[in-house]
Every structure is written in structure tokens, then in C-alpha cells.
Amino acid sequence: MDEHTFKARTKKFGLAVIHLIETLPRNRTSDVICRQLLRSATSVGANYRAACRGRSGSDMVAKLGIVEEEADESIYWLELLVDSNLVPPEQVNLLAKEADEIVAMTVASIKTLRNRKQSGVDHLVIQSPKSKI
User: Fold this and answer.
1) Would the pTM of this model clear 0.90, i.e. be above it?
2) Which CATH class is domain 3-122?
3) Element (H, E) at 62
């Protein structure tokens, strides 16, 4: 998947979580879980964009690690919404699946970048054409 498509996908994930949160009941428990979910889910796309502007393979790997962590954390909060009976599983299944796929693709990207670095081709990491660096 190319950079542009993955940026759009992570943004779409964040927006879908925003829309889910707006439909949930307002109470202390849902407010806390939703706040955490909102932060982690929207962080996925923001940190992927930052990774795309990484200055080296090592920098990109570090930033992609944050993407991986935030997507995985989003899965956790989605699971808590279901386990606490705030939402039925079918309401979050697609979001959880998407977050899981984002984790998998991010891990694959991290492995590829690490392999390039170990092969001595870290210098082949190409900056985004829109990058100001």
C-alpha cells in the first residue's frame, strides 16, 4: 500500500472512531473510555504522517512504532467498550478489524525498514515529495 493510501486509511479510521464516539451514551465510564479511544485512534494517522516525514530509516521506524502502539491501544479501548456492555460487538467489529490490519501493516513496514538498515541501504529511504526537509 502506498503512502497516500495509508494516510487516507488511517485518517478514515480516526474519523470512524469520532463518529462512533458521538453515538455513545454519556456517563462517567463511557466518557473516560471514549476520551482514551479518541486520543489513540486519532493519533494513529497523525503519527503515520510524522513517520512519512522521518529523516532516516531509524527515525521512521521509531515513529512507526508509535503508530503500532496507538493502533493496538485503540483495539484495547474498543474491546473495553464491548466488554463493559456500552456497545454491542457488531458496532465495533469493523473498527477493530481495521485497527488490527493497521497494526499488521505497520509491523510489516517496520520490519522492512529494519531489514534495509541491516543491509546497509538505510540511505534509500526517500522523503515525501511534500517534505520541507
Assistant:
1) no
2) mainly alpha
3) helix 57-83
